[in-house]
Amino acid sequence: MRRAIVAERRRSLLVCASIIAALLASAVASAWQASTVVADARVRNRASLLVSTSNALLSGMRDAESGQRGFLLTADEQYLEPYVRGKAQALDAFARLSGLLHGSGQVAALRDVRRDMDEKLAELAQTVQFERSGQHKRALAVVKTNAGKAAMDRLRKSISAIVADCDAKSAAALRDETFRVERTGYAFAGLLLGILALLAFATVMQRKAFTGVVRGAERMTRAALRDALTGLPNRRDLELQLRALERHAATAHGPVTALFMDLDGFKLINDTQGHATGDALLRRVSERLRQTKRSGDLLARVGGDEFVLIAPGLANRADVDQLCARLIAAVGPLAREFGFVGLSIGIAIREAASETLADLVVRADQAMYDAKRSGGGYRFSPKDHDIGPTEALA
User: Which sequence ranges are marked TM in the entry (predicted)?
Assistant: First the structure.
């Protein structure tokens, strides 16, 4: 039994440890996937910021170029406002772009952007200066060299390359993020399954433990209410069953006969042949009494060599005589195996609910001593003498 308990405990610990390990693995996997998803989101945010900053730089350069052309065409200083604003926007966007691309491996592309932007801004500034000083033809001559256009085209190409690289990285990050989100879902599903498994395991173990406690309590209750040697109800169980019989409609107000039996010759056999022989005799007597009693009768061992038989519905004198004769006859043959063995039986009959069953047993006990003093057999309680005398049966 102890080995089985230890083995069950080890199995339980192993299963519990396995489930906890699976939970930890799922939790670690979930955390790692979540951190990767966060990193991918940062890549996408950075790429989006790079694209918007690059577009802001190009937008500023286009505004500056538009303002320059308007000024060259009209010589109106109001057209320089887009030029000034666009130039400031382009320079600010480049500063932010430099910070975003620092250490990204795109330093060469950033240098190209700066070179082309400076060249274009220089061309714009030169033409504006010529126009302000009244040298309109020189300003147009600078424009016609197409150096500014070439610088602007290269700038657009460089910015497009940066944007394309950002888009590619953003798309890769999105794919990886989608993959990680799916894996995180799987990890969370595993975590949930692990928790459910742990709960199920705990429920099973709790139910098993509760069942064990209930069964243990039932075994203890049975042990407390049963005679360990014969398996018959003991005195405590007899008291409980007597109270139950008094509550039962069939026996609450009907006739009941109590037989209190003492085993004659037991003390001599127990003292001379030993306790083991005495125990064997008690088991054999209990078995024979159990086989002889009626199916609805209650048989209990209430002392060392004392037994009580409760016979509900039995009140007829002839039937009682017949039952006692059968009981004595059942025990008699054991004398050939153990030596002299006999029964002294005291009888008490309750014809109506005039007394408790416990009091009935007390009267039967007193009648048993009368039978024993008379040399064995059975005797009725003095209260039942009006039923008719019965001689002792040796």
Answer: 185-205
